[in-house]
Amino acid sequence: MSEDIVFGLHAVQSLMERQQDQVREIQVQRGRKGGRIEDVIEQAKAAGIDVRFVDKARLDRQADGVHQGILARVSAATVHREHDLDDLLDKLDEPPFLLVLDGVTDPHNLGACLRTADAAGVHAVIVPKDKSASLNATARKVACGAADNVPLVQVTNLARCLKSLQERGIWITGTAGESSGNVYQANLKGPMALVMGAEGKGMRRLTREHCDALVFIPMAGSVSSLNVSVATGVCLFEAVRQRNS
User: Fold this and answer.
1) Are 123 and 159 in contact (CB under 8 A)?
2) Residue 148 burial by Cβ neighbours in a 10 Å radius (0-12, 13-18, 19+)
3) In this predicted model, what pLDDT tens digit does every residue of 13-70 receive, in sequence order?
4) Residues 229, 113: Cα–Cα separation, whole Å
5) 67 pairs with which residues across the strands?
6) For residues 125 and 156, is the Cβ–Cβ distance under 8 A?
7) Are 231 and 196 spatial neighbours (Cβ–Cβ below 8 Å)?
8) Taking a C-beta distance cutoff of 8 angstroms, is the pair 28, 55 a contact?
């Protein structure tokens, strides 16, 4: 059975609260103490999960980032396929609210977008199979548990997937700096998918051609663009504001 690593105190704590059944082992830096770490240790022991105390060097070798003295070995994250998206949409009892990431290759940005999507109530995040960050330990750490809560759907052909969504009556809104539509003036209610482009490059041509509308975020200062995860937050929560009004 494949296995992943989740590291960092908040990420491990969120995992224990939301997806405890995925955790196979907790590793804690020897001599590391503190209220939150002690809480995780007690929770793991109560659930029958092995807790091992190891040297810092061992954690350093396993974690590609700041582990804060704690790491969990877990079942590999679930990545859904296109047919899973159809099943998910069929089961919804409210208008679909989707996020599409076209070519986001930085796992930090993927994790941040998943976290924001979870907070905004997005039903699923869609990414292309190629030229996209994987749901690795770094992405899961940044997502702070959202990776186990929001379905991540990997599709072979993103343009075909967008066309399929349109056939279901889902409106596709893409983001592009040179567009004439202001995100705050756009209609983001009802069945919709928000498409965010890659860092620096934006959406690919075929993706852009399958959008029903293009919008931009008005910028008041000298900065010409925002990080994709920040821009995702701005657009998603404008949609949330409209959908709740």
Assistant:
1) no
2) buried
3) 888 887 788 889 999 999 887 788 999 999 999 999 999 999 999 999 988 778 999 9
4) 5
5) none
6) no
7) yes
8) no
Q: Which residue has the tokens 């929560």?
A: 237
* Residues in the chain, overall count: 245
Cβ atoms of residues 59 and 69 within 8 Å:
yes
Q: Please spell the DSSP secondary structure of 185-241, one letter per residue.
A: TS---SSEEEEEEBTTTBS-HHHHHT-SEEEE----SS-----HHHHHHHHHHHHHH
Instruction: In whole angstroms, give the CA distance from residue 152 to residue 146.
Output: 10
Whole-angstrom Cα distance, residue 114 to residue 26?
A: 24
Q: What is the pTM of this model?
A: 0.81
Q: How far is CA 167 from CA 111, 140, 189, 212, 236, in A?
A: 29, 32, 17, 12, 22
